[in-house]
Amino acid sequence: MKLSNIASLWWIRLCARLGQELLALVGIAVGVALLFAALVANASLVGSFQRTMDAVIGQARMQVTARGGGTINEQTAVKVRQLDGVAAAAPVLEMRAQVVGPDGARSVVMIGVTSDYTQINGTITRKFAISYLVQQSGIALPAPVTKALGLALGQEASLNINGVDRRARIAAQLSSDQIGALVDSPISVAPLRYAQELSRQPGRISRIFVLPEEGRDAQVADALRRLAGAELDVRPADFEAQLFRQASEPSNQSMAMFSAFSAMVGFLFAFSAVLLTVPARRLVVSDLLLEGYGGATAMKVMLFDALMLGAAASVVGVGLGEQVSRHVFANPPSFLGLAFPYGTERIVTVSSVALAVLGGVVASCVAVLAPTALAVRAERRGEVGLPVRRRRALSTKLLPVCGGIALATGAAIAFSAPDSVSFALAGLVLLTVAMLVLLPVSVQLLVASVDQLTASLRSVVPYIATTDLRSSTARVRALAVTATGAVAVFGSVALQGAHADLQRGLDRTSVDLSSIGEVWAVPPGDANLLATVPFDAPQVDALSGIDRIDSYRGSFLDIGDRRVWVIGSPTTARHPVPRGQVREGDTALVAPRIRAGGWVVLSTRVASELDVGVGDRVVLPTPVPTSLRVAALTTNLGWPPGTIVLNADDYARLWGSEQVSALQATLSPGTSPEEGARALRAALGPGSGLDVQTSQTRERDQRAASREGLVRLSQIALLVLASAAIAMAAAMAGLIWQRREFLAFVKLEGYSTGEVWRALVVQAALLVGAGCVLGACFGLLGQQLLARALMEVTGFPVDYALAWPNALITCVIVTAVVVLVVALFGRRAAGVEPERGLG
Amino acid sequence: MLELDGLTKHFQSPDGEVVRAVDEVSLSVSAGEIVALYGPSGSGKTTLLKLVAALLPPDAGKVVVNGCEVSGLSGREAAAFRLTEVGLIRQTADFVPGASAIDNAAFKLLGRYRIKEARHRVEQLMGELGLGERLTHRGSQLSGGERQRVMIARALAIDPALVLADEPTGNLDSRRSEEVLRLLRRLSHERRTATILVTHDPLAARYADRVLELHDGRLRPHISSVASA
Ligand SMILES: Nc1ncnc2c1ncn2[C@@H]1O[C@H](COP(=O)(O)OP(=O)(O)OP(=O)(O)O)[C@@H](O)[C@H]1O
Ligand SMILES: [Mg+2]
After folding, report:
1. Domain of A489?
2. Which stretch of DSSP H or E encloses residue A566?
3. Among A769, A783, A778, A781, which Cα is nearest to A811's?
4. Is the pLDDT at B93 greater than 80, yes or no?
5. With an 8 Å Cβ cutoff, are A460 and B110 in contact?
6. Sorting pLDDT into bands at 50, 70 and 90, what band is A387?
7. What residues have CB less than 8 Å from A57, skipping those under 6 apart?
8. For residue B227, is it within any domain?
9. Separation of B36 CA from ligand 2 center, angstroms?
């Protein structure tokens, strides 16, 4: 058949069954949307950081930094510039700053630059006259930031830098024309001199970007390393990006897992939606075969169908997914922002679009062509009876057995609490397979028990409600609806359960971390949630209600490609190491050893990066390398790249600095944390620039931040559920619409509209409810496995608890939504004119 | 039993013309009587049955069954009337999907009886119709004639006052047709139901007590039966 004829045949049939095809389209589109939104969110996290970094780095290929996050003498930059083969060297001073305007406060990374910076040509200076800024005493901020804070050009803003309050003039507002995508990043640019003055670090810089002459990279690197000695690190200019990639790896991996999961759910949506159109397509195929067209022509006609459907659905799906990613996934997880300033830019890559569209088209092709191929084969043989019956006998006996085995294996894996991610994922796959395989049997059991239960009723309602499940042709379509619900609820329950487990683990860590001190004084701003900004400790005299004020020291330390969080607890701390996080080592000895000094606690990943175990000696890459012994291994305390705990005195030795990053007050017995906080605030005085917080406040803030990092998980779980509800409602509506003729017969025989309507509602409740309950039961098993897999991937602490209340609520809500939709739609379908039944 | 009085139904065809589907039809059928109704395609036979079954409201005239006027019933009342008083037999034996023969036959009883009781009640009738060995078969496992007999069982299971059959033998060969017609005749005589048998089948005249013809919506005696009489 000619392509044009195939196309016109398609068009004629499309017009005749527009409603059904639209429902199928909705099903596929929802799946594509899920996949697309997950892919975009995934690409955006790493992509937007990469862009921020690229903009800062420009063409520089190397950088020189101080070890342990400190500063270096700016004269070093002069020496670097004089090295043979160096084309340009740009010194910068970066610092965390809290900018306060009339309308709010925002944490930014301030970058102090000189006119040398133009030579490395980063985006932040490409289109805006840095030479003008350098002559100013003021700072430049992205326009969205100034707008949000209520600041205008030339106005003065309050700044808090390293625990000291300052004021600075807004010398420039950077627009997206000037700095491109960077406008969405929390950065600020200032002249180096001015930045040094603001932070009271005259003559200091934090980094030198180096652009070697073409082809002389190796030589320059050697020279730099010689110059750097022990205190400085020489690294590729894009080292930060490497660190970030490592840090965001867990969240990327979990997102990848969810993308795959969304794709699977999406495919089921598509499949159940397309199944609705199968009877009509089969009719066309058998007509074509009957009239003498070959099987190849029939397949071509169907392929055309599938491609058109898939393409249209993918376009709609990508549009829908775009909206989801704009509005639901708008804010990326912010926890990492504490160590990595990155933008909230949404990055839509060609590959995201291509993958989503491909997914949609493939789903549509498989769903359309698979039943067609079966029909063609059966039609060709002309022998439908025997082989089909034998196959059914096989499937009724063999499939439940296979399902049982898969279930038993999956459950065994779940209860064995596996340590390996792939093992846990294999368990999840097994459970999914078991669920789908056991679904028909379970539904059959359900029908049997409904028959039993309703045997004493004098009503036609239950009988009509279960007819679809009795007839072999309609059963596949009905089961597809049930399967959609089952898979969606399975995933959602497992996801939400695992999310809750992780959340509980992190919450407990927040409590542990904050209870290192009773009252804290830290520089203000989000960045200090982890207390990593050093400042000079102010003198505080003895206070009533406060026994002692101790120094806490913390920062980030780059080990290998990990930006590790360092916690330096006071030597007097009652719990210097977060309790309950120790995975290896003698729990009783850990705290005394850390307090005594000379010992360190590492998270497991950091330990394996350094290739040490409990009791081993380790030299950390700090400014003053010193040997310490490993007292214990812990979880990563919620910081994906890993953590190190030592005491604050050891920290001071290793970093060669007496600066602190928090003051911690120990309260006298009988003093409430609020009273203690008030006393400390008063003692520090109004000009101190430090925030005084009780451990409860810190815990709450930390909890909120870690929650934000996990929010994507529950968002996806909800989205899967919502789309499943839509897909099931659409499929149910389609199923009912196809049965209007049957409904007309039922009414022709004299049954009332009300009875027919009730039967439709009961049918929906049975089909969807069965799927939901099955999905929830399997989901609770899956939760165990998913939590395990996530724990291994993220290294987060996990606190396991069966999430059955959530599972129950999920079941009830999804079933209720679908039943409600069916109830509304069913009113119309049940109103079908009975006379239609007489032709 | 069944009285039709000046029954009229007109339709507006898409091109605006008025189609007189049923035009002032008056007819009375007594209990136990079978009236065969012939007529060319489009002459209004199905429309007449729809009017009698209270599936359509007439434009004029009335339908009275056992002294009760059916044409004025509300939708709900009309449904109850069909469920308890009218046995319908259609040309295609449309089964409830997936349901067994006995469940199909008992289908109209499910509103009144428990399912076991409903099945029990049709068992004997199924036997009389020669379906005793076919009770648990599904639609696809029955022959066309068997399926049509299941439909007759369904129609008669409620002990209807009225049986309306629209070309019940349209899909059957002559031997099966005779079988079905003979059963229909015997059962309506025994059970004293008034039956209207719409058909194109020349055989049907032999099993009817009276033969009529509908032409352009108007009722008249059947020519060939007049001739043969
Ligand atoms: N809802 C309707 N709207 C308009 N015209 C209709 C409608 N229903 C039936 N008709 C017309 O009324 C006439 C009678 O139709 P009816 O179905 O009663 O014919 P019939 O005698 O049963 O024909 P056949 O033997 O082919 O079944 C036909 O011309 C038909 O086109
Ligand atoms: Mg007709």
Report:
1. 440-514+707-839
2. strand A562-569
3. A769
4. no
5. yes
6. very low
7. A63, A120, A122, A209, A237, A238
8. no
9. 14
